Every structure is written in C-alpha cells, then in structure tokens.
C-alpha cells in the first residue's frame, strides 16, 4: 500500500463532460478552515508509505505565438527530494535512485503558469532494489502508483510493479494518441494505448501519470475501486485540483451545526473518485494565454473486464433434499456460462493445480490462487537467506478474529508460504480477554496449531479502550474520509489498531512450553491480509441461519 497525491494550480479545468460544476460555491464555505500545506499532505501519505517519500514539481506555461501558429509550451521540472532542478536548454541527465531524470527548459527559474506537485510515499513489497516515487523517465513522464500487478503487464522477477508500469506506459504512443478514439495515428505502429495498458492490469491500483510530450495528465482507479483515490474539483473557495490516497486531518470540515443523524461530521472538501480512467489534456486559450485542461473519462478496452463489470449473479434456489450431484451440476453450469470473463483474471503462477469440481472447491481454489499472488510474487523479503532471520521476519500478518473468514485465510496461507516464516495473527479487543473475538481467536490458534504444527503462529493481542481513543478518532476519520458515519468510524478504528500490529504475545519461558509470560510485541509484517466478505459469501453469520429458518433460501 502506497500513498500518492497531486496538487495542480494555475490553470482552469473544463469539467463539462463530467457534469461537475466547478464554478458553484459549496453549500458551507469552509476555505478558511481547510488550509493545509504540502507538508500536511506528505505526513498523511507517509503513514501509508514508510519506506520512502519523494516529490516532483512540473511547471508548464504557454509561449506566445503568432496567429495561426501551433501553440508552444515551455516546461520546468524539479525533483525536490534530491534537491536538483534541471533547467538549461540542453538535455540534462542525472541518476537519482536508479532513475534517469531529464528536462528541457528555456528559463533558469520556475516559470509562471500551471504547477503540478506530484507526491509519492512507498511501501515496497516487490523488486530487489529500493525505489523512490515519483518515478520519472528520460522522456520526462512522471508516475506515482499505488497498486499491485498480478497479470496483464509482464513484471520481471527483479522489478517493482511501478517500474514495469512506467516502462509499459512509456512505450505507448502517448504523443500520438487521439483521446477521442484511443487509437494510434500517424507513423506510430504500436497497438497499445495508455487506456489499453490500464485496462489490462490485473490487480488493485490507483494511478497518477503525466505524459509530457502530449501535455496530458492521466489518473484513475481500477474497475472495482480496490485502491482509494480522493479528488477535490476546483471550486470558488479553492481553485486547486487535488488527488490524494488519503486526506490530511486538517482538510476535514467539522461543524457541530451540521452533524448528520448517522455520522460524526460533514465533509465537503473531498469526494471519492468514481472508478475509471480519466485524462486532462492541456492547451492554451488564444484569448488570454491561460492554460486550460479538458477532462475526459474513458471506457475500459478490455472486453473480459467489461463483461465482468456487467455480470449479474444468477440466483439458484435448491429444492428441499436436492443438495446432490445434480445441484452441483446446475451450479457448475451457471458458473461455466459466466466464467469466460474470469478466465484471464484467474490465470495464476505455476504450483498448486488441484482439480476442482464442486462450487465450494472452485471458491477454495480461487482463494488459494489469490493468496499465492499476494505472497509468492513479493520479493522484498526473499533476499534474506538465513533461516533464523526468516523466522524473525514474519512478512505476513492476518487480521484475525478466529471466525470463518480469517480461519480459512490462515489455513490456506499455511499452504502457500514457506514453513520457516512466522505468521502474525492480529486480534483487537475492546473488552480484554472476555471479548467474543478474543475467545474465538484463541480457539482458532489451537486449531491452526493442530493442523499445521510446523508453523509458528503468533497471536498478537491488541487491547484498546474506546473511551481513551479521542486523539486517534480525528486521525482515523481523515483516513476513512469521505466515509463519515459512526459505523464507518467503529470499523475504521478496529482495522487501524489491528494493522498497527502493536500488542502482546505469550512467550514460552521453559523448554517444555508449559509456562508463558505476556510480553510486548509489534508486528513487522509488510503484507497484511483481511478476509472481509467471506462471512457474507459463505453465509457465516447467525442472521443467515435465522433468515433461512424463517423463509428458506429466498429470505437468506
């Protein structure tokens, strides 16, 4: 999980195609309450990307030209994290963190006009060499990326996802793409466009990418919204255009006079960017020379993905006593008729090839393959060769309640991960040892130890008191923004505490492992798994059983 952001100022946006009115003031003018600095934004992003933090600034202005001549632009690029500005008329190259930086500019200082500030905070899980975002290539394209690539783009063993994506985007006909048709024109013979590349990514992602030659900004989220990206469209109170993975606490609007019935506050500054691919192509108005960006939303070009998005679940109600092979055949028939769109998305790495036949086995196999993708592909911890060091490392943790979802994940993870690695099981309780989730978690660990005795399972007990979390509440509200109900807050605090991994474990004090002491422990895992949704899919809650008893499958 990384943190990415962009702040754009000094230009106007044409939002007519999105039906967003940038001129209308917000119902509660809050500009004076929402002043936050770039440093505030960096601090919020750094919590998501603790390994590195970088900043790149791009300045663009139009050059006055004679009537009838093509509009010209001049550009100034500054990488803030390395303290070097590239600013002469000749090509300049410098290696910074393994990246080639290049810029053309005809001035010796930042120029007036549009200003783009790219921020990237990285939590690196893949690649043998450390990277620092934003990435910039020799063509001055800039990328900040928060995502994982499981397919659709080839990623070498030694590469980071963002590096592979940067290369793929750079190979596109960025300067020759017609944004209306997404097809290459002119002499370029390559078939892929930026929209094609993003449509083919298999995995969760959010992206901000600047194609310098076309003076076009690309941004968006995967079709299922698995990575957050907030947007602030320009308003009268704040004319900036902003994108960010998370909102700074100082950009939250709190007003006791506007509390809603279901929430804690009203937030009017940020909104969640709808899933999709967007572009802003910049041009200069001949009347005043002001840089204007036209915002467009693009259709997915991957047919399998479009079919999956539009897929509707078919409800099959079994007859009493018909839980038999014929019922399984009916389900499999329905599955096969809708699985064409899943075929490409479910191609997996070599390894477990267990035969599947029943719907339950199909689901289990899909979960197993998903875990393989999220563990075996990550190479950041595989450079450690010492067995003892691997045991200490514990690269994977599970948010663990001992319920159906987390137990299934833990059991499958044991099949996918080398036995030399420890697995941290993170359990949050607001009622100490008497909380139902703590009781079920301890029972779950005993069961896991029985079925996987060679694995060292660490139950990390994270205790908290809601009455003492006042200072954390504001921070968590900024993390879940724009969600703002009490239910969102309660779930968010539990997830935030669990993901911190700061709790207690029981440590053996004798050779026979009969006596233990409780000691402080903080998980160092970089890969965190959560099984949200399995209880719903597998009807694991008591209410499902109650509804079934009352009205059968139709009610459940």
TrEMBL record:
Cited InterPro entries: Asn_synthase, Asn_synthetase_domain, GATase_2_dom, Ntn_hydrolases_N, Rossmann-like_a/b/a_fold
Keyword set, alphabetical order: Amino-acid biosynthesis, Asparagine biosynthesis, Glutamine amidotransferase
SUPFAM superfamilies, A to Z: Adenine nucleotide alpha hydrolases-like, N-terminal nucleophile aminohydrolases (Ntn hydrolases)
Matching Gene3D superfamilies: Glutamine Phosphoribosylpyrophosphate, subunit 1, domain 1, HUPs
A UniProt-annotated Pfam family: GATase_7
Molecular function terms, GO-annotated: asparagine synthase (glutamine-hydrolyzing) activity
Ranges of residues in domain Glutamine amidotransferase type-2: 133-246
GO BP, sorted A to Z: asparagine biosynthetic process
PANTHER family, per the entry: ASPARAGINE SYNTHETASE DOMAIN-CONTAINING PROTEIN 1 (PTHR45937)
Protein name stated in the entry: Asparagine synthetase domain-containing protein 1 isoform X3
Organism from which the protein derives: Cucurbita moschata
């Amino acid at each position: 999980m990384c943190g990415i952001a962009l702040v754009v100022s000094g230009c106007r946006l044409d939002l007519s195609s999105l039906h967003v009115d940038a001129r209308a003031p917000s119902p509660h003018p809050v500009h004076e309450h929402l002043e936050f600095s770039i440093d505030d934004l960096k601090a919020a992003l750094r919590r998501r990307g603790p390994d590195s933090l970088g900043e790149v600034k791009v300045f663009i202005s139009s050059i006055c030209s004679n009537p009838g001549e093509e509009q010209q632009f001049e550009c100034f690029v500054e990488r803030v994290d390395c303290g070097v500005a590239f600013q002469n008329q000749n090509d300049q190259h410098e290696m910074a963190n393994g990246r080639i930086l290049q810029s053309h500019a005809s001035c010796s200082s930042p120029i007036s006009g549009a200003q783009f500030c790219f921020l990237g905070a990285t939590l690196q899980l893949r690649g043998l060499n450390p990277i620092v975002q934003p990435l910039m290539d020799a063509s001055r394209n800039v990328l900040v990326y928060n995502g994982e690539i499981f397919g659709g783009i080839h990623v070498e063993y030694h590469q980071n996802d963002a590096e592979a994506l940067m290369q793929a985007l750079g190979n596109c006909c960025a300067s020759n793409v017609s944004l209306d048709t997404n097809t290459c024109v002119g002499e370029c013979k390559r078939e892929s466009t930026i929209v094609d590349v993003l449509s083919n990514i298999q995995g969760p992602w959010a992206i901000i990418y600047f194609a310098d030659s076309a003076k076009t900004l690309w941004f968006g989220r995967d079709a299922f919204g698995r990575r957050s990206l907030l947007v602030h469209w320009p308003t009268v109170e704040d004319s900036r255009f902003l994108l960010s993975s998370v909102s700074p606490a100082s950009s939250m609007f709190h007003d006791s006079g506007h509390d809603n019935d279901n929430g804690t506050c009203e937030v009017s500054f940020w909104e969640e960017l709808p899933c999709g691919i967007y572009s802003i192509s910049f041009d200069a108005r001949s009347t005043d020379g002001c840089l204007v960006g036209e915002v467009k939303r693009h259709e997915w070009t991957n047919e399998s993905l479009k079919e999956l998005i539009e897929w509707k679940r078919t409800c099959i109600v079994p007859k009493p006593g018909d839980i038999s092979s014929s019922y399984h055949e009916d389900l499999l028939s329905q599955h096969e008729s809708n699985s064409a769109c899943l075929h490409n998305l479910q191609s997996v790495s070599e390894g477990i090839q267990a035969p599947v036949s029943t719907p339950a086995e199909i689901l289990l196999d899909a979960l197993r393959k998903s875990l393989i993708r999220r563990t075996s592909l990550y190479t950041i911890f595989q450079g450690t060769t010492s067995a003892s060091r691997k045991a200490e490392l514990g690269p994977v943790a599970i948010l663990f309640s001992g319920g159906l979802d987390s137990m299934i994940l833990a059991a499958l993870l044991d099949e996918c991960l080398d036995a030399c690695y420890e697995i941290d099981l993170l359990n949050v309780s607001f009622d100490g040892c008497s909380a139902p989730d703590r009781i079920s978690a301890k029972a779950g660990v005993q069961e896991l130890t029985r079925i996987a005795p060679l694995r060292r399972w660490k139950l990390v007990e994270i205790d908290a008191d809601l009455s003492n979390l006042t200072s954390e509440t504001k921070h968590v509200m900024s993390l879940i923004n724009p969600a703002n109900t009490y239910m969102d807050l309660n779930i968010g605090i539990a997830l935030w505490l669990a993901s911190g991994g700061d709790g207690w474990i029981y440590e053996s004090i004798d050779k026979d492992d009969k006596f233990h002491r409780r000691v402080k422990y903080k998980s160092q895992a970089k890969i965190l798994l959560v099984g949200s949704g399995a209880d719903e899919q597998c009807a694991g809650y008591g209410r499902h059983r109650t509804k079934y008893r009352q009205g059968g499958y139709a009610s459940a």
